[in-house]
Amino acid sequence: MALPTQQQEHIIAWQSSGLSQVAYCRQHKLNSKTFSNWLRFYRSQQVASAAPTLIPIEIKSETSSSGSLWLRWPGGHTLELPADVSPQWLGQLLKCLD
User: Fold this and answer.
1) pLDDT value at residue 82
2) What is the DSSP string of the chain?
3) Average per-residue pLDDT in the chain?
4) Where in the sequence is the domain holding 72, given as residue range(s)?
5) Cα–chain-centroid distance for residue 94?
6) Number of structural domains, the chain?
7) Mean pLDDT of 57-70
8) Is there a single domain that holds both residue 97 and residue 57?
9) pTM of the model
10) What is the pLDDT of residues 31-49, one digit of tens each?
11) Same domain membership, residue 61 and residue 93
12) Same-domain pairing of 43 and 78
């Protein structure tokens, strides 16, 4: 069940208004507790409909004499891990870093 269009429009207008929820509700003659319920439902819908995020990776074949696995991010961050790290653990780590 989706939030009615008018309620969504109020939420979007409030987000761009720069007002607190209470001030926005007072200005538009809305019950602030009802508005909070709309907002909670709206946010839960946004999270539920969000597509999974994929992390782009580039695999380079480089021989390491140190026996380490290096993960390098475009922003300059580097993480060194043992070469024998579990693929399952590494997958969980990458999900947490997303």
Assistant:
1) 87
2) -PPPHHHHHHHHHHHHH---HHHHHHHTT--HHHHHHHHHHHHHHHHHHPPPPPPP--------TT-EEEEE-TTS-EEEEETT--HHHHHHHHHHH-
3) 83
4) 52-98
5) 14
6) 2
7) 69
8) yes
9) 0.50
10) 999 999 999 998 888 777 6
11) yes
12) no
